[in-house]
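Ticket reopened. Same input as before:
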Amino acid sequence: MTRPFSLRMENDTHERLRARAQKLELSASQLANRYVREGLTMDEFPEISFVSTPEGRRAVLASRPRIQVIDLVATWQGERQDIESTAKYFEVPETDVRGALRYYAAYKNELDEAIRKHREAQANFEQVLARRSARARRATA
Amino acid sequence: MYSPLIAIALRDDGVDAVSVHERPELKGQPSDREVLRAATREGRVLVSNNAKDLVPIVDEFALAGEMHLGVLVTNDVTFPRTRDAIGLMIQSLARLASRADDEMRDDCQFLVRQDRGGP
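Engineering reply: fixed in the latest deploy. New output:
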């Protein structure tokens, strides 16, 4: 649900917003919404940042943007919810793991769904590749 | 994303492996596309558990006629990302590393589990 909200923006900031939105093929309103939403979240969870992926925006560790929050959560679950082991696995500070887990607690349903889809994609793709390999073997036999 | 300890252990076993974590120019690089390009420049196969993001990029490379030296995708069920499973990952990758350099060129495959003493 959305509601109208007007604000006074510096000319230069407005121009930069419009240019960036055009580049990303978004409306200025959509991009401003994203910046405010993610900015508020990053203020609340300083260990977290956001990056664009082919699947949309993803929460990552601000200090290590290659590590997605869902990666940390999956390892934390696999390590019997041991924060120290999770930090050692990725070689990141425990404070980063704690920050990611605070974010997970706040957005648990969303992240559980992302982990479920991630695993489902792996399983589906593995099956497709297995079928392709079987066909190739039959064709060359 | 896997533990950087895996690449370190592979090098100890004589395999030329490197983790993205060890490349300052890639450590903060969120784009898998650029990581795949960097792997290609260094003559490496890219290993990732992120099929959802990488498969579209592999297709994009194919459509653009852009070459890469292979992508190995892993399954979190077969290769859990935990400290207990690091050894299994090392064995499986070390076994694969003995294959010819260009065997996976432009290809995308799943990493097969190689337990110690396996085939």
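The two ends of chain B are 27 Å apart (CA to CA). Chain B is about 40% helix and 10% strand. Please confirm and we'll close it.
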